[in-house]
Design a protein that fits this description.
Layout lengths: L6 H14 L1 H4 L1 E12 L5 E7 L2 E7 L15 E12 L4 E14 L1 H15 L17 E6 L4 H13 L4 E6 L7 H13 L5 E6 L13 H9 L4 E5 L7 H5 L2 E2 L3 H8 L3 H39 L2 H66 L1 H6 L4 E4 L16 E6 L2 E6 L15
Parallel strand pairs: 3-5, 6-7, 6-8, 8-9, 9-10
Antiparallel strand pairs: 1-2, 1-4, 2-3, 4-5, 11-12, 12-13
Helix pairs in contact: 4-8, 5-6
Length: 429
């Protein structure tokens, strides 16, 4: 049919028109960054916007040498590049070669202002963060009833633990009334006494996620008695709700991983703990049995009968020791007595011999002085009739009676006459 063109022809014609337009070949566009995504290939996809519209843009990995900073939501930038048509989709977009900062967007400024205010109030302080229960049985979810977020949470929860109960509060997460809906959802589920709450949604632009940057939502999370996990957008998206929550998950799927414990791993841990407890109980019982045996032995050792027997045996031992000691003392005394007797006998014999010698010497001397010895030599001992010793002739006048003692007897005689003689003494006349 004449005048009918294919889609490819139209897209090619429009692309050619864009190519021939010199202004579109080298253009600089100012706007606010929104819905910025860093692709794994190295490309950066984002949207430029202002009060009147939006423009899709991309910076390929080969052009990133012209980027001196990390792009983020709300930044005001000037993008230099080419506006061209992507023929396959019939869409035009800005292909960036250079990007530079040109201030900050209104939403980003508002975001930073509220972030500073809440931080100064202490709402981000670590001491207010509550621990997430390790074995939660009931999990509340505040998010949209449709979309990838709730599906991801349900799939992860079903895989990890089908016995955990999920309770959804279907909330608006974007647009007018979203912040109030989220606040009502948090308060409603908090009043149910659940174990943990997940508050979040899937990814989007800063405008799409703005409900989670509202002060009322932040205060509802801070005042919630139930521990809250925030799961807003993708890993690179950070909202004020993430700062206030007890724990931030990079994605809704990650939030489910954090909130729902793995039942299979739980069973394995339980079995391991049971085995450990059984081993420890066995070890403990063995110790108790050992102590019991020791106590029984102590009781037997301290039993009165055993004590009496031990005392008796001790008494017998002491008696035997005493008898041995007495016997040893008697033997020692006997030995000492015999030794002393022997010494005394020797001493007496020695003294007797000495005395005999002295007696013999004295006897000899006495015999030498004895009148009997003189008498035996022919001498006599003369006394008068009254028994008085006659030492001089003057004692015996003639006619008196005298007695002469000789060795073998006495002679009685009468003095007929007396004659005096001169006696010489040793010391002179």
């Amino acid at each position: 049919m004449a005048g009918v063109y294919s889609v490819t022809q139209v897209n090619s014609y429009i692309k050619n028109m864009f190519t021939q337009d010199f202004l579109l070949r080298r253009i600089s566009v100012k706007g606010e960054v929104s819905n910025c995504k860093y692709h794994s290939s190295g490309h950066i996809y984002f949207t430029l916007k202002d009060g009147g519209g939006t423009l899709s843009a991309v910076m390929f990995a080969g052009q990133r040498r012209g980027l001196k900073f990390h792009m983020a939501e709300g930044q005001q930038v000037i993008v230099k590049g080419t506006v061209d048509v992507y023929e396959r989709d019939g869409k035009y977009q800005l292909y960036a070669s250079e990007i530079e900062l040109s201030g900050r967007g209104d939403l980003y400024v508002k975001y930073e202002k509220l972030l500073r205010e809440l931080e100064e109030m202490g709402m981000f302080a670590a001491q207010y963060k509550r621990p997430i229960p390790r074995y939660a049985k009931t999990v509340g979810i505040v998010t949209a009833p449709t979309g990838a977020a709730i599906r991801d949470i349900m799939n992860i929860s079903r895989r990890r633990n089908p016995y955990v109960q999920l309770i959804l509060y279907p909330a608006l997460v974007q647009g007018e009334g979203a912040k109030d809906s989220i606040v009502r959802g948090i308060k409603t589920l908090d009043a149910m006494g659940l174990d943990v709450l997940i508050v979040g949604r899937g990814g989007g632009s800063i405008e799409d996620l703005w409900a989670f940057n509202e002060e009322s939502v932040a205060r509802a999370i801070f005042s919630c008695n139930t521990p809250v996990i925030s799961a807003v957008g993708h890993e690179t998206d950070v909202t004020i709700a993430d700062y206030v929550a007890d724990l931030r998950a990079p994605t809704p799927s990650a939030a489910a991983e954090l909130a729902v414990f793995d039942y299979v791993q739980f069973q394995a841990d339980l079995w391991a703990r049971r085995q450990k407890l059984s081993r420890e109980m066995g070890f403990f019982l063995d110790q108790v049995k050992g102590r019991l045996k020791q106590d029984e032995l102590k009781i037997k050792l301290h039993h009165p009968q055993h004590v009496i027997h031990e005392k008796r045996q001790r008494l017998v031992d002491l008696e035997d020791a005493l008898n041995r000691q007495i016997t040893d003392l008697i033997k020692e005394d006997k030995r000492k007595t015999e030794s002393r007797k022997e010494w005394l006998t020797k001493a007496m014999n020695k003294r007797t011999e000495q005395d005999k010698k002295k007696l013999a010497l004295i006897s000899g001397k006495m015999w030498g002085l004895s009148p009997l010895k003189k008498l035996s030599q022919g001498y006599g001992f003369v006394t008068d009739g009254d028994g008085n010793r006659v030492e001089s002739v003057k004692q015996t006048p003639p006619g008196c009676e005298i007695v002469v003692q000789v060795t073998d007897g006495r002679l009685r005689a009468q003095v007929k006459e007396r004659q005096e003689v001169q006696v010489w003494q040793k010391n002179g006349i």
